[in-house]
Amino acid sequence: GTGRSRKQANFKGLFSKELKNLMYGFGDDRNPANDTVNVMEEILVEFIADVCQTAGGPQRKTRLSIEDLRRALSRLADAKKLARMEELLFMQEDIKRARA
Of 13, 49, 62, 69, which one has the greatest count of Cβ atoms within 10 A? Predict the structure, then answer.
């Protein structure tokens, strides 16, 4: 609806630098077309919003925990994403331990 697109406008350009690098890393041109980056960013923001909405559950929580995200990504289709999240959380803890 219109509410979602209004919220997305606040994030316009927020991920463009990282997306350009990711797209290049996955075989796109060094400087992909801005239209392409914008579409990828729209898809990314929509995905993040959907995961957060799922994680918030019917209570529509305003603060999400790692457990909420685990539950949202525990669907079979998101198994790789859940595994990657777990890997990144482990690496984050590993880095904290190394710095301590």
Answer: 69
The three-state (H, E, C) secondary structure of 31-90, written as one string: CCCHHHHHHHHHHHHHHHHHHHHHHHCCCCCCCCCHHHHHHHCCCHHHHHHHHHHHHHHH
Q: What are the φ/ψ torsions at residue 82 (nearest 5 degrees)?
A: -65, -45
Instruction: Please answer whether residues 37 and 20 qualify as being in contact, where contact means their C-beta atoms are separated by less than 8 angstroms.
Output: yes
71: Cβ contacts below 8 Å, ≥ 6 apart: 55, 57
Residue-wise pLDDT tens digits, 62-88: 899 999 998 888 876 778 888 898 999
Per-residue pLDDT reduced to its tens digit, 7-48 = 545 778 899 999 999 999 999 999 999 999 999 999 999 999
CA 44 to chain centre: 6
